[in-house]
Amino acid sequence: MSNIYANSYLIIFVFLCLGVLLPIGALTAGRWLRPHVPSDAKATTYESGNIPFHDSRIQFQVRYYLFALLFVIFDIETVFLYPWAVVYDQLGLFALVEMIIFIVLLAIGLIYAWKKKVLRWM
Length: 122
What we know:
By secondary structure, the chain is an all-alpha fold. It has helices spanning 2-33, 40-43, 62-79, 81-86, 88-91, 93-115. The longest helix has 32 residues, at 2-33. The radius of gyration is 25 Å and the shape is flat.
């Protein structure tokens, strides 16, 4: 029985090593293989062929980030609904109650964001 557990940990360790070593190896190989010729023209900001007339690092208001973050959160949460809907017949009443709780929590979060006026674009 302990051999099964050791084998499971070995598989996890191998995947962990691959998950760390493959990106490091790819980035290192890319650094060695790419040409490195820095110039002032490459360091300038590209604005549709026009000569840049100010610094490209402008400050955005926080509400744009909040709006984008809320979009990503609700977009990802809707992805959880699809697999549930595919196997709905096999899950039973317990999964239906859990999904109702999940959707209610999402609705509470949406109402909270609406009340805080986070969803207003301007």
